[in-house]
Protein: LuxR family two component transcriptional regulator
Amino acid sequence: MIRVLIADDQHLVRTGLAVLLGAEPDIEVAGVASDGDEALAMARDLVPDVACLDIRMPGRSGIEVARELCAPDAVPQVPVLVLTTFDLDDYVFGALEAGASGFLLKDAPPETIVHAVRQVAAGQGTIDQTLTRRILAEFVQRRRLQPVTGRRAEDLLTPREHEILLLLAQGMSNDDIARTLVVELSTVKSHLARMLPKLGVRSRLQAVVWAYQNGVVAVPGPGGG
Structure:
């Protein structure tokens, strides 16, 4: 059972998300918060599998809450899915840099939101597909923190880890990667567990962003796939 915390300052949105997610047989709404401070307190008390956070809330913002819950030394660490009506680049960047595992617009189809919750709970990050290419391109341009060289991955990772990173950047799930490499799913998970700390990231999504930042893979052009 996936236990979810919902935090949004709009009653209608909180209720709608609770009804949507609570109707799924494998999801339980563990708590509902109306502001950032309440969300942080409830997350620490309830330790949900996923915290669905709005960005603009009274008290702490969703990004500030994500930073507290996703920090390397956070106790407990809680995966965060940001749901917002705003697709402003700075909000997306802020969520990624805070350690959020996913970012979706609230007008995403209900099935997309449910799927995103499951992905985040399983350790698989997600970004709204309408934002992905633009966000990756802008993130690389505006948040480049390290020299852009594909050799960074070769220096840090084993050949198999490097291969898995490239497949992650193609949007493959753990199951997809296991089938492609003809290995057990547990083997893929083990490689990921060793790879993420080497890159200094906390999620699959951030590993993909790292790959684009460091030139391991190229950002698709406007007509690219």
